[in-house]
Amino acid sequence: MTLKLGVHVSISGGISHSVDNALEIGCSAFQIFTRSPRQWKTKELTPHETDIFKEKLDNSPINPKSVVVHMPYLPNLSAPTSEMYEKSILVLTDEVTRCNMLGVPYLIIHLGSHLGQGPKNGINQLVNACRKSLDAYSDLGLPRNKVKILLENSAGQKNSIGSRIEEIQSIFHILGQNDFGLCLDTCHLFAAGYDLSTGSNVSTLIDLVDSSIGLENLKIIHLNDSKGDLGSNLDRHYHVGLGKIGEGGLKSLINNKKLSQVPFIMETPIDSIRNDADNLEFVRNVLTDSH
Ligand SMILES: [Zn+2]
Ligand SMILES: [Zn+2]
């Protein structure tokens, strides 16, 4: 089994630098933002930039199917109808277009916050936002099913949508597997109350995902340990194996045969304890059964 493993890498200096950054630390998968995640405004990607990105990726050992874009943080796709909601739909449309230009097959989205209007309203808004974006994208005459939108589970912060597998299942069933898939974040799962600290709990969770959403629709795993306690609803990522989930559970997840095709991407801190290369090495050397 060859583990597809990587981290979120920077695009500073140009989007194609992300490929160099990923290769430099030995990633076999990676994630990027296509723009600054905390700003609404961005420059258009030029065909020149996207050509260099694709060329570098083609000449690398990284399979383009193991590359993923994460939506910026500001949009809220479950918000009540407002200027902010309309802007969020535009960003989603734009990000799908950018993924297509880059040849990246997956776009990860957060499911947003209903801002007090209730989950039912939030889910309706989310479904509408996703459909509107894909329709707008089709109207540009671009091939529609090249990019899948991956729904990411949330940590269960106040008013957030998508912290329960059953809730994501119901959203996924409305949207359909043609254009949508799933990204599971281990820190968010733990913070939302799914105890992944033991092997048997991990297999129970994998079975739940398989029977509800289908493991074939699970396209990316965000491999993050949790600084917050089980069920704390805190979205605080920590170094793999050093947080509240710990080595045992994460090791059994990484080595689960049912997940052997799914790329694992870390979004862990960079501090005096470890950097990205250290977390990669730890997973490869300590947590992987066959390496
Ligand atoms: Zn995310
Ligand atoms: Zn997070």
TrEMBL record:
Entry binding sites for Zn(2+) 1: 70, 110, 152
Domain Xylose isomerase-like TIM barrel as annotated: residue spans: 19-280
Record: residues binding Zn(2+) 3: 188, 235, 237
EC number: 3.1.21.2
Pfam families: AP_endonuc_2
Family: Belongs to the AP endonuclease 2 family.
Enzyme's top EC category: hydrolase
Protein name: Probable endonuclease 4
Keyword list, A-Z: DNA damage, DNA repair, Endonuclease, Hydrolase, Lyase, Metal-binding, Nuclease, Zinc
Species, as recorded: Candidatus Nitrosocosmicus arcticus
Functional description taken from the UniProt entry: Endonuclease IV plays a role in DNA repair. It cleaves phosphodiester bonds at apurinic or apyrimidinic (AP) sites, generating a 3'-hydroxyl group and a 5'-terminal sugar phosphate.
Molecular functions per Gene Ontology: deoxyribonuclease IV (phage-T4-induced) activity; DNA binding; DNA-(apurinic or apyrimidinic site) endonuclease activity; lyase activity; phosphoric diester hydrolase activity; zinc ion binding
Binding sites annotated in the UniProt record for Zn(2+) 2: 152, 185, 222, 267
